[in-house]
Amino acid sequence: MVTEKQFKLLRFMLIHKEKTFTQRQLAEKLDLSLGTVNALVKKLKEEKWIDEEHHLTELGQKVLDPYRVENAIIMAAGMSSRFAPLSYEIPKGLLQVKGERLIEREIRQLQEAGIEDITVIVGYLQEKMFYLAEKFGVKIVVNNDYYKYNNCSSLMLVKDQLSNTYICSSDNYFVENPFEQYIYRGYYSTIFAEGQTDEYCAIEDSNHTITDIKIGGENSWAMVGHVYFDRAFSEKFKEILETEFQHEPYREQLWEDYYCRHVKELLLEARHYSSDIVKEFDSLDELRQFDERYLINADSAIIDNICKTLKCVASDIVNIKPLKDGLTNTSFSFDCIGKKYVYRHPGRGTENYIDRASEAVSMEIAAKLEIDRTFVAMNKYEGWKISEFIPNAKQLDYENWDDVTKAMDLLRCLHQSGEKTGHSFDQFEGINDFREKLKARNRFEFDGLEELDETVSILKNYLQNDSKQVVLCHGDSYSPNFLLNEAGEMSLIDWEYSGMGEPAGDLGTFIACSNYTVEDAEKVLEIYLQEVPDKKTKRHYLAYVAVTSYYWFLWALFQESVGKPVGEFLYIWYRYTKQYGQLALDLYREEN
């Protein structure tokens, strides 16, 4: 067994095999005492690992072979949503920093260190990464589950490659090359975080072995940068990964979470680096501090859109914060010249079922009617939108009847405005459209589907005989889209599904997205209609609760089919289709 100090001396001699050093020079170069070096040299000569001139022998080379780095894995599959807005347009690893793309710099540094076997795992905007195979001779592995699971799913794809392996992130920037060809033991790079940090922080013993990990800390060694798995670590980690990844909750975790659970048996050193050497940029503001070019030109169409709309320059756009993703889009807030705004970036695939031109026209009308006080601008071709940020905004509370009354006032104002657009929103057309999309994905088969489909088809026939109204409708009138400012003024936002349609559809969506009892739903109708509805009116509106619930149920199935789980709403809409469908059918059949 080679000791760490023996390894250190052998590796130095391998790297400098053309040179000859005295023992005093070796002591200075290796930061060891002269006595220690004397003892090491004597031992290495006895083992015939070095010769009398202190050159590495063939036997010494064989001793080093088990410590040779075999390969590197670069993780580049995720979206890096914290790095809005640049990560909305390109993978973070392709950002240019100091004139060099992050991932290209990392690959070059690995190759300069003698590591040629490099695999890049791609997912988000993967096609933009494919060129790396030809340019650098790296292998590309596609993670098609990048949007569903965390980075543990990437390691599952390359688990058989894990050995003496570097695990790298595509978005790190190393001012100096940290990679080596021979390494004594596995390690995780750490940098000292002054003050509070939300990074994973290493607790280490006197030998710098990581003994525990805390998420978040103060004045701690934060686990940032590259990681090196030695063979012993890889063998144990692979077993753990294969076992635990079978369970769905673990698939949504970082590989570091697996490591945390088994830190006592998965031994890694905490290798300390200066924060001047290992860089990780979590936001555009942080990147600007390191590369001032981004103050002037962020190479971002999104930043350009904001500049043109708000008549500002890139450096005016600061404090960018990703907001929690909506069900279809991604948004971030930002400050610009003393005001706070929200930029909405359209979700991938939404162009298949959202008419952006219709949305833009409706938003202009909503702003004119003061139904939406937040609207600033929208591009009807590309789908991006800028709105004013509502500080301390509150969503409508379904249990607060004052909130509900304000919401019904807004819907009534819209429906009675007489405003018209050239766009329509018909739930039945939407149902047919989603039905075909789901059939194409083999997601339109399950027990109970025929009953739902038949209920809605019968209701459609009844509704066609009712007197029809066609007015401008919002189309997505549920609580997150009704926002109250600090003065209690309500705005109705997000007009993606708007168009000319049946006003009962807006009431249907409002009720379908609640946990109301039937009695509560009837109270909502009374508030909206400003009277107790007669039986014909009541059945008409209840029928639309069922139809709208079915529309959103199919919409949710489609979202699930493309990897965007909707959560509890899926079952709520299934249940409401049946419940309100039966109520409406009973009322229609009473007359017959």
TrEMBL record:
Residues 72-157 form the MobA-like NTP transferase domain. One of its GO terms (biological process) is phosphatidylethanolamine biosynthetic process. Keywords: Transferase. Pfam families: Choline_kinase, NTP_transf_3, wHTH-PRTase_assc. One of its GO terms (cellular component) is cytoplasm. This is Bifunctional IPC transferase and DIPP synthase. PANTHER family: CHOLINE/ETHANOALAMINE KINASE, ETHANOLAMINE KINASE. GO terms for molecular function: ethanolamine kinase activity; nucleotidyltransferase activity. Residues 14-68 form the PRTase associated wHTH domain. It comes from Streptococcus mitis. It comes from the Bacteria. Gene3D superfamilies: 3.90.1200.10, Phosphorylase Kinase, domain 1, Spore Coat Polysaccharide Biosynthesis Protein SpsA, Chain A, Winged helix-like DNA-binding domain superfamily/Winged helix DNA-binding domain. The lineage of its organism: Bacteria, Bacillati, Bacillota, Bacilli, Lactobacillales.
